[in-house]
């Protein structure tokens, strides 16, 4: 049910009234260029832009839905204040000045009374997709100076950033598979046919794989589900969730024992790595992982022999118990086979706006301080979001009493989300910068809504740096915002200045008048690879060429060398040994739960658009037919899935594509909470997988182990 107290807005007279404009889709990391056709102010079509040097005309169903976000009647267009709670809450619109003052007053008062850590912050995924956050978000974050800063990073790519800092000297300096020239791509725990790639900006993955196979190259996938990507691969192997670490260490062992290494002159520590990997043989990996020993040996030899090869691993090997060791082994497989910094291997990008070289973000640090309750390590100034709830609920010095969320929905996105929702209700004050009343922001006292994709300028500060080709693109807004709307950067700047004034810090007023275009222009000038003038003359994007060798100059370590065996990793091998010493496989009636993504889902949102929610339901618990049979469960039945933290009831479906002993639920569902104001979303069936994931299951980095969660499944 939509709350009628919430005024519904149609956009004010949009412009241009008729014509075709170049835009960009900011819904995933593929950053596709688009062409938007407009007639009489209404979007009549969105296509991929064939002139875009990176995306080459690619588009997926979500790109087309950029128009639905723009016209969405559920979307907030003015600040709102909540009156009442939960299902009975109503929302009233208030003016911008009043709303900003209210948020700044309450947050500053909390800091004054209880100290700077009493305000908590969650930064969600869409921030990475907005230039305004890149240029102005940090000022807001810094103005609060809280140690209780959390983000989607710790349910996502934290191990990658931690290792990028440890090995290459900067948290954002990650080598990218040279997919357009490689002859061998070994992929673990990633499904780019659905996700369109991550930490590998690779628009049009399907076509690039066709090209790879067309030139005789191979794609090998290791995944507990025969995914859409596994189905287009030349080879797929099931691997038991959480056990990849044994397979990857065994590959290192084979590589070294069989004399297949080709170590670059700027890397140190081969002997140490050899000693560490020595007893992780393929035979030891085979039982727990389900990958036969001879397969592990063969894949290792193929990798070493290939003329340009890349190993790549994503969510499935990051958000699991050994995410850091897995990602370390992946980096080392590339390094030791001589594929780092090699055409057709993995290479560093040379972005036109270089967040790494220009130190827009610091290089990183780890465990400099710890979370108050559980003593979990910070990484680069943020704490694991799995600790957020206890930091709100546990009394004492430093307890979180007020929250600010920015573009985040942690109730659906982080472990034990249901309990986190209850914790939010206990706060003194909560504010959100968000475009919807969703499962998280319904707890906020005030919501400040920014403009969205088609109404704002865009430059992909983050994703150009992870792209399979060096390109740059500045995209002016397709539609001018209406007078009363605010861009996110305007909200960040206005709130930062207000907080600085109230907290006795010199206010950075210049922020308010320095739009992202100017900031990006300055960054482009600093590297000199292109200019704002050139980008404005080429709105389709400017091609800066394929990835090139840059080593060791591009290294950000002080001595321009790579230390291959950092203590953080070598220490964690003890945990690996212990984990697989006793019970290599789940016992009894236990199954291991993993997540999944669908091409037409977008994390926790966009379930209110007709375009993306029609068609076959896709919320089922997928289960191997043998696992159903042994429990006497028919496909389609409603089952109860139970983990340590809770249980959910959901329909199941038999799927030969699942590894026996493994079950899968999509993430981002579970919209049936009272008070959620999202048209169709509340009718979209499906439960939240994060009502089952466990905040106590963590990688050494603090990243949540969202995959490989032990569950039982019974007939409801
Ligand atoms: N179990 C399980 N959990 C997961 C995952 C998984 O695979 N399995 N994946 C994890 C990953 S990789 C991620 S990145 C997180 C994502 O989780 P979150 O960080 O929560 O991000 P989203 O769900 O993408 O978006 C959150 C909200 O941002 C708002 N929003 C959208 N666009 C904008 C905008 O332009 N500005 C503002 N201010 N708000 C906007 C919308 O209301 C949306 O609901 O989820 C994680 N959670
Ligand atoms: N359509 C769509 N696209 C998206 C998103 C979306 O929600 N929808 N979200 C975006 C975001 S925020 C991100 S971070 C990226 C993520 O991009 P990907 O990482 O490519 O996406 P996932 O589908 O989460 O892929 C994880 C894979 O790991 C497998 N897996 C689970 N556990 C294990 C394990 O222990 N070992 C191995 N080897 N595999 C395992 C799963 O079966 C799954 O196939 O996608 C982005 N793109
Ligand atoms: S692949 Fe990603 S960037 Fe491209 S249209 Fe789809 S959602 Fe948008
Ligand atoms: Mo993500």
Automatic annotation (TrEMBL):
Entry keyword Transcription regulation: no
Q: Where is the 4Fe-4S Mo/W bis-MGD-type domain?
A: 18-74
The UniProt keyword set, sorted, is: 4Fe-4S, Iron, Iron-sulfur, Metal-binding, Molybdenum, Oxidoreductase, Signal
| Alphabetized Pfam families for the sequence | Molybdop_Fe4S4 (PF04879), Molybdopterin (PF00384), Molydop_binding (PF01568)
- SMART domains in alphabetical order: Molybdop_Fe4S4 (SM00926)
Entry keyword annotation includes Iron-sulfur: yes
Give start-end of the signal peptide: none
Q: Which GO terms describe its molecular function?
A: 4 iron, 4 sulfur cluster binding; metal ion binding; molybdopterin cofactor binding; oxidoreductase activity
Q: What is stated as this protein's family in its record? A: Belongs to the prokaryotic molybdopterin-containing oxidoreductase family.
Write the protein's name: Unannotated protein
